[in-house]
Amino acid sequence: MAGARFPLVAYNVNLKTDDLGLAKEIAKKVRFKDGGFPNVRAMGVDLMEQKRVQVSMNLTNYQVTNIPTVYEFIKAEALKKGIEIGESEIVGLIPLGAVESLFKHYLTCPQFSIRQIIEQRLLDQ
After folding, report:
1. Is the pLDDT of residue 104 over 70?
2. pLDDT tier at 115 (50, 70, 90 boundaries)?
3. 92 band by pLDDT with thresholds 50, 70 and 90
4. How far is CA 80 from its chain centroid?
C-alpha cells in the first residue's frame, strides 16, 4: 500500500550570531506543537563552521503557512535581540505553488498567478 502526503518545503533561516539558545527560542515560537504556526516543524541548529545558527524548518503545508510568513516572523524575533538574518535556503525541491507566495509578497505583486509562468501555461495546454 502506498501513501502520499502534501509536498513539504524544507526551509532554513540563518542568523548572524552563534547563539544557539536564540535559534532554539525562535524555533520554539515558530513550530506548531509549541503554539506557533500551523504546519510548521522547527528546530535550532548550530552551524559551527560558519559561526552562525539556523532555524531549520519543514513547512508541511505551504498553503497554510508559507515562506514569507515564517521568514518575516523570524526576522522580527531576531531583531528584537539585535540580531540580523544572514541568509535563508530552500533544501531540495519545492512545488511551484510555494514560489507563488514569494512573488506576491516580496515583489509586491498581489495579483500574481503561477499561470503567468510560461512553462506552467504550456503544461496546462
Report:
1. yes
2. confident
3. very high
4. 19
- Note whether 40 and 62 are within 8 A (CB): no
SS3 content of the chain, % helix, strand, coil (to 5): 40, 25, 35
State if pTM tops 0.85.
Answer: yes
CA distance 115 to 18: 42
Domains, the chain, ordered by start:
9-93 (3.30.70.670)
- For residue 87 the three cell numbers come to 541568509
What would the pLDDT profile of 11-36 be if each residue is shown by its tens digit? 999 999 999 999 999 999 999 999 99
CA–CA distances in Å: residue 37 to residues 25, 28, 66, 70 = 14, 10, 10, 8
Instruction: Order the strands of the 85-91 sheet from edge to edge.
Output: 40-47, 52-59, 9-15, 85-91
